[in-house]
Amino acid sequence: MVNLGLTKVDDTLVAKHPGLQRYAACQSHAFMKGVGSFIVGTGTLFFLQRAVQKRLPYPLQWNLLVSILASSVGSYAITRWETQKCTDLWVYLETGSYPDRTTPEEEPPAPTDPAGPKVTVYGDVME
Q1: Backbone phi, then psi, for 74, in 5-degree steps?
Q2: pLDDT mean over 115-122
Q3: Each residue of 52-107: pLDDT tens digit?
Q4: H or E element: which one contains 83?
Q5: How many CB atoms lie within 10 A of CB 126?
Q6: Strands (E), 6-113
Q7: Confidence of residue 34 (pLDDT cuts 50, 70, 90)
Q8: Beta strands in 1-127 (DSSP E)
Q9: What pLDDT score does 53 carry?
Q10: DSSP state of 58
Q11: How far is it, in rounded angstroms, from Cα 119 to Cα 77?
């Protein structure tokens, strides 16, 4: 029986998707890494701003606001990065191949020049 959060997953579903437990562990690790980065980032930025505040005084509320906002952005980026790795792991466990993340290069359409004179949308013939 595999636990996903507080719910238990049925054994038939686990048998159908053998990588479910590894995927759930990966997601849990990704979310905890995001929470940890938020806490550490907020604390670090707060104390860095306290050191800067001696030369450039500004209210404590701005110190907290900047620390929390910057840590939220950083935490989101880390969590998104780690979750993408978990998604790639899930695809690999299910299909046996690693997903291709490269963007396909589009070729520009080849110009088509008609052999005869060009005709405008109004029916005029251009030479």
Answers
A1: -65, -40
A2: 78
A3: 888 888 788 888 898 999 999 999 999 999 999 998 888 888 887 777 777 777 76
A4: helix 60-95
A5: 7
A6: 7-9
A7: very high
A8: 2-4, 7-9, 118-119, 125-126
A9: 83
A10: -
A11: 54
Neighbouring C-alpha atoms within 13 Å toward the C-beta of 69 = 6
Q: What secondary structure letter does DSSP report for 17?
A: -
Closest CA to 69 of 41, 109, 100: 41
Closest CA to 85 of 46, 30, 37, 22: 30
Tokens of 86: 């978990």
| 89-94 LR contacts (CB < 8 Å, sep 24+) | 89/19, 89/22, 89/23, 89/26, 90/19, 90/23, 90/26, 93/18, 93/19, 93/22, 93/23, 94/17, 94/19
**What pLDDT, on a 0 to 100 scale, did the predictor assign at position 120?**
83
**Residue 56 vs residue 27, higher pLDDT:** 27
